[in-house]
Structures are given as structure tokens and as C-alpha cells.
Amino acid sequence: MGFIHIAFLSFLFVCTYAASPPNFVLIFADDLGFGDLGCYGHPSSLTPNLDRLAAGGLRFTNFYCTSPVCSPSRASLLTGRYQTRSGIYPGVLYPGSIGGLPLNETTIAELLKPLGYATAAVGKWHLGVGANGKFLPTRQGFDEYLGIPYSHDMGPCHNLTCFPPDVKCFGMCDLGTVMVPLMHNEVIKQQPVNFLDLEQAYSDFSTSFIAAAAARNEPFFLYYASHHTHYPQYAGLGAAGKTSRGPFGDALLEFDNTVGNLLATLESTGVINNTLVFFTSDNGPSLMRMSRGGNAGALKCGKGTTYDGGMREPAIAFWPGMIKPGVSHELASTLDILPTIAQLAGAKVPPVELDGVDMTEILLNHGKSQRDTMMFYPTDASETFGLFALRLRKYKAHFYTQGSIHSSTTPDKDCSGLALLKPHDPPLLFDVEADPSEHYPLLLDDHPHLQELLEKIKRVKEKFESSMLFGESQISKGTDPQLEPCCNPLCSPKPSCCQCH
Questions:
Q1: Bridge partners for 315 per DSSP
Q2: Which of 386, 339, 396 is nearest to 362 (CA)?
């Protein structure tokens, strides 16, 4: 589509939504793989509500996050910028991390606040707590927050059970740190959190937020970042033991039930036809957990790697009357959500280097993407190595490959943590449309025209990396045990005394 058509769309948005701006519900799963949902081909997952979104909306097949681990991926989602710009690298933030998402970064919530939007974040934050809560969602544009401010395995496995009740949590949890807290805004309401009631609390909070905003005729933005299906899995009585897929399937079902509650509330309050619901995941499955870690489908490897199994995600856009049902094979990313919401809401994007592009042409017309490249940074991103891989249209070039402990236990030796860093010159090149499993590198001897393609990829890489200004690493600032959230901050001995019910 040309400039005139895009300009017309902009005019149409202004005219249509001047009196009633669209609402946004952004649902972010945790460690959910490309092959984990029923609508993406899993034979035993029970995900009726997410399948309903897919049947009535637009399902993506080439949608990418920006990092194969949590914190960097979440920073990119909320800012529309690669995590290297905001300093959320290398690795992830911890309960006592000194750093966090810098306050001069503009989140989607901060983009929408000047337009009168009510904003709420629910669930996993994982972008820092900091001294006096300086990095919490309430300091980043969100009116309200209910959730755990980091991964729920970052604390002892206290009060965390699977089904049946006597089966303790699967996998390793962190010892020697505070028990996992549940926070409302900036106040700890429960420590340790009761996981078996947690999802119901999230669901009630989210539906109440939607209902209250709708009653006030106030546009809203809900960011619901689920802890499901990150290990260790948990599920309350409404989902435990209800699936044939075991604890992972039960956790996924409980998450899906909340999605159903959100949809029911949008319908009952009469705002569903004026609400864009967008669902995706932060990174690929934790294959080290075997059947309890998720599934990447046909894609190679999983969490922690820059193969597609670590960074290509399920994604669904749902908006009755605005988005026609279908499937999009266009290239898109979590980076594109901020500029898309800005376009639909009539918001001004921040005056910084954005890496996202507007997806409205894809959403509303099943049209072409403005994106033809995707960059792949590893978990331990650095200026020294730069990009590990680059996708240009249907071709993906690997300049470095490396396995990850998160993707160990698979038969593919490339995925294992024992697969050490390996440079490739010329890069490994795959046609990821014909070979989504990245099994068969294209050989120059068989495809002489690929030399020209590799030269173009090299130029694209050089241009991008010349524009990449790495922000100060927030994670390298280290940790301070005194910053770990504690409901009794003056108690002793820590961390065991940090408990309140």
C-alpha cells in the first residue's frame, strides 16, 4: 500500500475514534513455545479461549520477540526498542537488582496516559524493583499494578504445589532469597504468595479494571503478563488435573481460563468491538524441563538460543469488526506493538530511535508488513559480538551459534548448553519458510545467486549495527540483598523473616 492509502487510514482512525478511542488488552505469556497452543497444532493442549481468538482474529506465523529470555524481551515489548538500547542486557534482572528499565524510556502506558487512558499492569513485571520501588510499573505509566515483580521461581518453592496437592513444585527454585511477594501497586500484600489462588486474583483484578474503565467511558490499556507457563508450573483447583498434558497443560488451561474471563468482561461491558486484544509470548519454551517446559513445534531449539525455537512466537490479534479472521505470514515483532498502538490511539511516539514499525496495514487489511528484517541478539548480548543472527525476508543468517542450558535435554546437540559459541564466516544461511527447523544450510556451491544475498545481508547488518547505541547495562550494576522486596523491612534474620499473610 502506498503513502496515500496510509494517510487515508490515519484520517479514518481520527474520524472514527475521536469520540471513542480504542481500548487495548495486551496478553503476554511466559516461556510459551510456537507449538504449545491448540490453534498452532498441539494435539493435547486445552486452549479454547486462545483458539477462539485465533479463529476470530489474525494468527501470525512469522512473529518474533527480541530476546530468548525474559527481561530483555519485556523491555522491547513495552518500549518498541531493542533491549540493547535501554540497557536490559546481558541476561535478566533479579529480586535484588540495583538496575531496572531506565525511567527515561517511554513505555506503551506512558504513551497513552496523556490521551486519558486508564492503565494497569497485572502479573510478571521483571523489569526491576530498585530502591524504594523506583522501577515498578507505577513509576512507568501504569495507574495500578498487581503481581509478582519478577519470575516466580526467584524464591524458595514455598506454598507452590502441582496436582495432586502433595506433589511439590517441579524444577529448581532459588534459595537464600526472600519468599516470592505479591504486590499491589508498591505495597507487598502477601509474602509468600499463595500460588493456588493467584490466577483467580489476577483474573478478578483485570476484569474489575476493565469494568470500571468501561463504566466511566474511559479508554483503557491492560497489560496482562502471565506467569504461566514458566516453570515451576502451578494451577488452582479449577484447572489442576483437568488436562491430559500434565502440570504444563493444567497451567496453560488456567491461563486460558483467564483469557476467557477477559473476553467475557469485554463483551458484558459492551466494549469488545472497540478493543484490540493482542496475544504473544516473551520467548521460547524451556526445553530443559522436558514435557513440563513447553514445545517449539517444528522450530529448532528453544529458550536461551537465537534459533527460531527461542524467538519465534505464537501471536494473535483480535478485534471484532475491525480485524478479519485469517492467517498472516508477514514478518512482525513485539517491537511493532508500541508504534501500532500509537497509530491506532493517535498518540505521539517518543523522539528516540524506535526499532518497531506500524502493523495497522497487516491488522486491518491483511496487507504487507513494513518490516523485512529481524535482528537476533543472544541472552548475553554485547557490543563485542553484536548480532548473532539476522533474518532478511525469508532468509536467516547465523553469524554465531550457541546452545543454552535452557534448551538442554533435546536430541539436537546444537541446542544443548554444551554447544559452545561458534562463529560462522560465511554465515550459516537458511530459508526459514522452506526449512523452519533450520536443519539444512544453503550451500553456495548449490545456489550461486546466494553470494549476492549474503552481500546484502552483510550491508544490512553493518548499517543496523552502526545505528545501535548500547545503553548502560542495568544488569551489570549487580545486586544488593537489601533491595529484595520484604514486607517487614526492619525484621531479622533476613530473608526468612520476610513473611506476611
A1: 60, 280
A2: 339
121-136 pLDDT per residue, tens: 999 999 999 999 999 9
Q: Phi then psi for 191, rounded to 5 degrees?
A: -155, 110
Q: What is the CA radius of gyration of the chain?
A: 22
Known catalytic membership, residue 126: yes
**What is this structure's pTM?**
0.93
| Domains along the chain with CATH numbers | 3-360 (3.40.720.10)
Cis peptide before 448 (omega within 30 of 0): no
**pLDDT for the residue 310:** 97
Cell digits of residue 302:
528453544
For the chain, the first-to-last Cα distance in angstroms comes to 57
Residues 201-228: pLDDT tens digits? 999 999 999 999 999 999 999 999 999 9
65 tagged catalytic: no
DSSP state of 398: E
Q: Which of 42, 126, 152, 406 is catalytic?
A: 126
DSSP category for residue 386: -
Low-confidence ranges of the chain (pLDDT < 50): 1-18, 162-164
- The active-site residue out of 5, 15, 65, 70 is 70
